Amino acid sequence: MSLLEFGLRWFSMTYKIVQNGASIGEIRPIPGTLKIGDTSYVLRDDILGAHYLEDENGRRLVTVARPSGITSRLFTLPIGDKAYVLKATSILGTDFVLLENGREVGSIVGDGFFWRGTADLPDSLPLETRAFMIWLVLKAWDLHALVN
Description:
- By secondary structure, the protein is mainly beta.
- Helix content is about 10%, strand content about 50%.
- It has helices at about 125-140, 145; strands at about 1-10, 15-20, 20-30, 35, 40-45, 50-55, 60-65, 75-80, 80-90, 95-100, 105-110, 115-120.
- Strand 4 (about 35) and strand 5 (about 40-45) form a beta hairpin.
């Protein structure tokens, strides 16, 4: 697993994504875009509240059903033939774990200040999917003014 770091750039409302000390992409919550290298993706919620990642051609790569109530900090991500669960480790905390078949395979941890954190997720997942998971966690941190 390779660690991804992310943090809010001052005065830009953009989250920079860094891997091994080099900037590899960014998340722009408004208007909901993800850029990895030269490739852009769309980050959206549909009319029913599902979250999704879409490529430049309008094809949905990952769709996550809308969480609700007590599960609002739990996301089920069907990716290929696997089903991952991204869930908060506590009700109010910023830490999330990624589970595959009930076994922890990764985490996204908030650093506390200025909407920063680290994502330690399996390299077998595409980079854009790992960045999408970061976006889901940002949404779960209840940054509605920034992310919705």
